[in-house]
Amino acid sequence: MKTIPANAHEAISKEELRSLLIEYRRQNWRGIQPADTQEVLVDQILQDDGSQVLDQVKSLFRLPREGRVLDVGSGVGTFVVACRRRGIRALGVEPDRIGQGSQLSSLRIARRRTTEQVFVAATGEELPCRDGSFDLVTMNQVIEHVRDQRTCLREAVRVLKPGGALYIACPNYLRFYEPHYKIVWLPLMPQFLGRAYLRLRGRNPVMLTQLTYTTNNGLRRLLDALKPECEFIDLHERQFLDKRATGAFASRKYRLLARLTRVPIFGAPLLRVVLFALRTREGGCEMMLFKKTIR
């Protein structure tokens, strides 16, 4: 893909964008995240060039030369802008349901970032796109925010071309941490307890009411329901198996564990236990789903 100069299609300067992002987070995330983290998070947004997601995708999927990408839950437009800098035809949809709501919405900021009309107000449950119109759909830290995860995934598959791919990343709520509030959290804590706990911590529980707890196994069940039209790969599991195959673990403990999973009779059930433990221990989920070609 050709790389487009960073400011080729941008309507505002980096300094103006930074000011907008700081104000947006001040209005929408007040009481949700500590105030002293906002500038740090804004700087991370400004430095994000989309490479993390694109590198994960390209390890398993080759985007066609004139391929089209849809970013569901595009937020302030970071991934779409990064793709378009690379010459990738990317579009974004965003309902801006995050946080407390304000006149300065993420969709408004996204539309300020480019002179092109590439951002649309929509939900993942009702994508305003024709069937089979995209080669790649991304849902990065989005599915925990949607109201109907099953419908959202079906919509993503609907707009995928045969042979296309869907990338999904989200938190795993089996860990003792809540990534939006950035505090210690009981796994799958009931929301009525969560609201009381947040108030005791001096936090606004508005974000919690917008979350659907996700887990690795829960997401796998949702993706299993899309078979036989689609198949999927758990990227964390694949990374473990690749390292097991090549002996690339840096940790002595994991190298020993990998050898034990090769022991006859004993090794196969141990590997299943290890993979199950990996799915519960990982702080996040990363999946790639592939829509099968029509024969």
CATH topology: Rossmann fold
Q: Oligomeric status of the shown chains?
A: single chain
Radius of gyration: 20 Å
Strand order of the largest sheet: 3-2-1-4-5-7-6
Tally the beta strands: 7
Mean pLDDT over the full residue set: 90
CATH superfamily placement = Vaccinia Virus protein VP39
Shape: globular
DSSP strand (E) fraction? 5-15%
The level of helicity is 25-40%
Elements, N to C (H/E): HHHEHEHEEHEHHEHHHE
Main sheet makeup: 7 strands, mixed
- Number of helical regions: 11
CATH class: Alpha Beta
Brief characterization of the structure:
By secondary structure, the protein is α/β, with parallel strands linked by helices. The chain has helices at 14-28, 38-47, 51-58, 78-85, 106-112, 149-159, 191-200, 216-224, 235-246, 252-260, 267-281, and strands at residues 68-72, 89-93, 119-120, 134-140, 160-171, 230-234, 284-291.
Structure description:
Helices cover 39% and strands 15% of the residues. It has 295 residues and is α/β, with parallel strands linked by helices. The protein has one domain: Vaccinia Virus protein VP39 (Rossmann fold, 3-Layer(aba) Sandwich). The chain has a seven-stranded mixed sheet with strand order 3-2-1-4-5-7-6, with helices on both faces. Helix 1 crosses helix 2. The longest helix has 15 residues. The radius of gyration is 20 Å and the shape is globular. The two termini are 29 Å apart.
List keywords for this structure.
39% helix, 295 residues, alpha/beta, Rossmann fold, globular, disordered N terminus, seven-stranded mixed beta sheet
